[in-house]
Amino acid sequence: MHAASSRNKPSQVETGLARLKSDMLVIQTLAILDSRPILMDELERAVQGLSSLVRRCFGPCGEETLLFAPPDPPLVTADGHALLSAWRRGLKENRVGAAQQEPMQMYILHAVDGLFTQLGDGASQFVLLLYGAVKHATDAIHHDQSQQQLQCRQWSAGEWRQLAVAFGDLKRECRVLLGDFQSWQPNLQVVTPIEFVRSDKGLQTPSDEFRVAMANILRSGLFGALGEQVVTFLTRLVVEWIFVSPLVVDDRVDASILFHRVQQFVKAAPRAITFAVASSVYDSQILPLDEFILRKSILSAQSPSILGAHNGAATTSPPLRFLCVTCPLSLTFGSNHVTIRASDSYEAIIQAHDTMRAFMRKYVRDLRHKHDVSMLVSTDAIDDSVAEMCTQHGIACVQFAEHDEVMDLCTTVNTYPLASLFDAIKPTQHIGVCHGGVSRVRLQQSVYLRFHGLQRNEGLGQKGEEELARVAVPQLILNAPTKGVYKQYYKATTKALRILQSWCEPSSKSSQRSNQFELYSCRGGGATELALARQLQKRKPQDGVVHNTSSSVAQLARRIFADAIMEVVVILRGNMGAMASSDDSDDFNNQRRRNHTVLQDMTTLALHDDTQRHIGGNEPLQPLRGYVLNNDHWTDTVAGRISIPELVFADPKDYGLLHPWRRMQTIVIVVLEILEQLFRVDCIVRTSTRLRGDADAAEEFIDEIE
């Protein structure tokens, strides 16, 4: 009976964990590591491996790494998320069972992907901050345990649980602290008003000041991934791309309108961005709104001359009318499948097939002569007999077009595709008009169709949210000499879109109001991080936030996280100093000097909390300072004038080094969330190992954690 209870012991522990946490990845991690007595050592090893991948590429002077991930082309990148994504693919594909052998890394990489989806940036900082917190936590615990060994005692499960609760309390406190920053650092947040200029036609375009603000946000997130000139060009290209189509709104543009538009570009980016082989990226172009490249060509059985006068060569060519369908052009399968009941006689079967062919013949004839359609674009197959009918009537056919591309084409001309051959064709809703004709272009060693002079149909008359939902995303052609270089430009472009999306996302406070006409940023270069670390060191645990934890454990969690934040800033300064003229070479011997320098710089920050302001009166607020590169120094060489960057400790706002406020807020909260989860899991693992074979004690422990 006792053996049976012992065998049921792991399932009871896993049941208690399932009640405690709903995250399946944490549960899988516990199930795999249940036989290992110390989980934090496993976590430290896993995070250390990931941090070593991104440590040298963190910051605007990151080192590049050559990636080989067949069958993809080789990629030279300094983007942290690209490195971590390649490592994740290696765990899942190249090494058999590696994903099961490295559950901690897979869990953290899932969190990295979630952060990239939400923020577009901060993957390297997230991993480095998590590693710093884990390393300082394990060092502090090992030091405490070495002191307690003299008293013949180790950390109990209750103390591990208290540290997990302390990280949870600190997470809630940081959420309040970053939401109520006016009480301790009024100039922590940079506010940018949303400014648009209205034209005589009612169209609204961003003002020059707002364009500069957007460019600064994007440039700050892209520095280090590519060269400075390429980053400047791509940021200008992305801002121009988003607002090629002006906003048609009656009211003032707010954050929700901007967020919706950028969100549509993020969704359409994989289809809207096209690779073209060229020597320079600076020749990349944004297609006008009346042009569209369909990544398909006409049927091979049809001659290119079927386009005839619609190929765009003649200036007096008649407009081309096209119809998009999302169903097969056949009555024998798909949504148009028709079942005809007939006798078993051969004549009846032949008559039934003749009836279906007669229907398709009449349908094609009506398309050509009644609706003047010259092109059919289908997302499904086109029957050979139907293709022959279309060729006889001079209708060009495109089959197996991507559904999303067909929807984008319809959005460009403001129409809808036909879902069934039995639906009534309404010219104002289903037929698009192309005044410039269709030409055949060769991109990526394939022949595509390029529509010229597309006419936007105004017959649907959408208003309000329906109009905003159909944002016409113009296509972007990115030039690059190779596919590998193109992937870098594509990665940088999509990253810029996600950064802009996180910046424009309305805050939780604004959701209670009707509109939000301001966007919020924070200073880069470690300025915001240093201010937060200084505040955590100055403040004591709040009585209204701390639950069931001793003051010493709560203070230990604050010290661990503050030290981790400082270490991330030290890494940033070290990487920047390696390229600056005012710093020594980056080696291990300079680590202590850099730590001391960052500590001194942090102590110079003047945080104006409520107590200091009441005592000192209306003191002027000192600007927050961080580490930035000053490129104002030039020198003459044989090759010409070159810029010599200088590492300075100044206000990053003066240099345009700003990040979305949500970036810092999300990274801090997610790191503390993971620390809370994993320390709680470590507590359960240690207790389950200690109580293995004692069913009654395990049940009491499960009831306790519930």
UniProtKB/TrEMBL annotation:
Which GO biological-process labels does this protein carry? chaperone-mediated protein complex assembly
Q: Supply one GO molecular-function term.
A: ATP binding
Q: Name one Pfam family in it.
A: Cpn60_TCP1
- InterPro entries in the record: BBS10, Cpn60/GroEL/TCP-1, GroEL-like_apical_dom_sf, GROEL-like_equatorial_sf
Against SUPFAM superfamilies, the record matches this protein to: GroEL apical domain-like (SSF52029), GroEL equatorial domain-like (SSF48592)
In which domain of life is the source organism classified? Eukaryota
The molecule here is called Uncharacterized protein
The taxonomy runs: Eukaryota, Sar, Stramenopiles, Oomycota, Peronosporomycetes
